[in-house]
Amino acid sequence: MEEDIQYSTVEFKCGASAPKKNKEEDVVYSQVVPKKVFPPAPPNQNEKINSDIKTGKPKGKKGNAPEVQASGSRFHLLFCLGIICFLLCVSIIIVIIYFTLETNNQKQNLSNLESKNEQLTLEKRLLQYQTEDMKMNVTKLENQTEQLTLEKMIFENQTKEMTVNMTILQTQNENLRNNSDKLNRMKEAIFKYSTFPVDLFCPDKVCQTCPKDWIQFQESCYFFNHFISQWKTWDESRQLCQSYNSDLVVISSIEEQTFVKSKIKYYYDEWHGYWIGLRRINNNWIWVDNSQDTLGYWKNPGSSDNFVHIVDKSPLKQSWVQIRNGFQNKFICEIKAFIF
């Protein structure tokens, strides 16, 4: 048979009122299971026992069993409440310890983070200082680079200027050397003349190889009297040539004969020509430089006349005409070229 479950109500009579129950407070029920100490009572007797417990009236020996039963129930209830309170206290202590440890751990972590933050802040400042320092160094290096570039450009310009000056000095030196050599050659050339005609060769202080209107051939200058309208005798022609520090032409080679023949011009008739510096002395044909003639390009050999002129309308080697001194012709002067 299933055992009957009995419920009991506990009343506190020590002057303290039972704690007020919150509306939301749970109702605790205690179940007392008898261990067959007492035989099951009829329903009317159980009700009577419950009423007696509520009123607190002692009932002799028959009422002791329910009172012991109620006392055991209170003990078990209090024991359970104590265990619950102990467990709650332990739980609260554990929670407090946990939160305390966790709080300390968080504080330690916060302190570590703050230290790291301070360290990072210091490192950041240090990096900022280093960055500023590097910027200043870069600016300084850029300024130095600009200064060096400017100095390099100045040195390059100075080098170019010095190179130009050196080239100018070299050119001047070369010109001076050439002028010196030229002066030495000029000196040697001047010494070839018994009297150097400065006005003739160096008009306006600028020396020339041949005087104006004279024609150079090899080492001599020749003046062909094309422009003087008044013709002259052989003596007059020689005097005029000598006034120019020259003399009548001396033809000493076939090349010079060819040159002279190519420059003379036909005028008046075939017997008029240009006086040359050849004459007969003691039956010998002598040039004005006292050299004896060896060519003999005669047009009229065997003539008794003692002076010679050259004509145009005749063969190259038959163009010298023997004629008297009083005959008037044009003339050809010759002077050494001023080669230096």
UniProtKB/TrEMBL annotation:
Question: What Pfam families does this protein map onto?
Answer: Lectin_C (PF00059)
The protein's matches in InterPro entries, at most eight in alphabetical order, are given as:
C-type_lectin-like (IPR001304), C-type_lectin-like/link_sf (IPR016186), CD72 (IPR039689), CTDL_fold (IPR016187)
Q: Gene3D superfamilies given for it?
A: Mannose-Binding Protein A, subunit A
The coiled-coil segments of this chain are 103-189
Please name the GO terms that the record assigns under molecular function.
transmembrane signaling receptor activity
Listed GO CC annotations: plasma membrane
What UniProt keywords apply to this chain's record, in alphabetical order? Coiled coil, Membrane, Transmembrane, Transmembrane helix
Q: List every stretch annotated Disordered.
A: 36-66
User: Which parts of the sequence belong to the C-type lectin domain?
Assistant: 217-334
Ranges annotated as spanning the membrane: 77-101
Could you name the domain of life of the organism this protein comes from?
Eukaryota
Which protein are we looking at?
C-type lectin domain-containing protein
